[in-house]
Amino acid sequence: MARARSRPARPSRTARASAGGAGRLTHFDRKGKARMVEVGEKPETDRMAVARGFVAVSAATARRIAGGRVEKGDVLGIARTAGLMALKRTSELIPLCHPVRVTGADLVLDVVSRGRTPGVRIRAEVRGRDRTGFEMEALTAVSAAALTVYDMVKSIERGARITDVELVEKRGGKSGTWRR
Q1: Which of 57, 68, 111, 167 has the fewest CB atoms within 10 Å of its CB?
Q2: What is the pLDDT of residue 83?
């Protein structure tokens, strides 16, 4: 039996658009191969990104988290630490992501009742001065914190769900300010 040759998927026409084209996916070269974007000529500017996410749990689990009564320990504190540790290693986790100079970060986790859905709300703000943005660092911080909450409650909460991980704001660079 003949073995099929593995060939990388060819990027869409938009991804192959010429330099500077609208909608161009910058992580592909002209031949459609993945590449790290060149940022050396970009000016260093103050930049900031905010991401958020949510871990939905039952009301009983939310009360246990808020009261510090989860057997594995301080869910919010450990998740905050995990998120901060992860954001510093983003370029090691995301293959085409540049290492950036983070000068500050805030990661806030709150137990809430969002509508009728209780859970843990997570918000990360990452700041620094560099040639490229901090979106991936903010998203990585939220994701790692959410995964940590999930890991710490999975033995008591079979229905835990990570939802709504998204970038909500970014500032700096050529694009100025963007908000969801």
Answers
A1: 68
A2: 98
Gap between the Cα atoms of 94 and 73, Å rounded? 29
Q: What is the DSSP string of 47-94?
A: EEEEEEEEEE--HHHHHHHHTT--TT--HHHHHHHHHHHHHTTHHHHS
Let me know if residue 16 belongs to a domain. no
| pTM (two decimals) | 0.81
Tokens read off for 120: 């843990």
Q: Total domain count for the chain? A: 1
Active site residues per annotation: 151
CA nearest to 56, candidates 150, 168, 151: 150
Identify the domain containing residue 97 by its residue range.
45-173
Phi/psi of residue 175, each to 5°? -80, -10
- Which CATH number goes with the domain that contains 146? 3.30.70.640
User: How far is the CA of 91 from the CAs of 102, 136, 140, in angstroms?
Assistant: 12, 9, 10
The torsion angle over the Cα atoms of residues 123, 124, 127 and 130, rounded to 10 degrees, is -130
Whether residue 32 lies inside any domain: the answer is no
Residue 18 lies inside a defined structural domain of this protein:
no
Residue 13, CB half-sphere, CA atoms under 13 Å: how many? Answer: 0
114, pLDDT greater than 60: yes
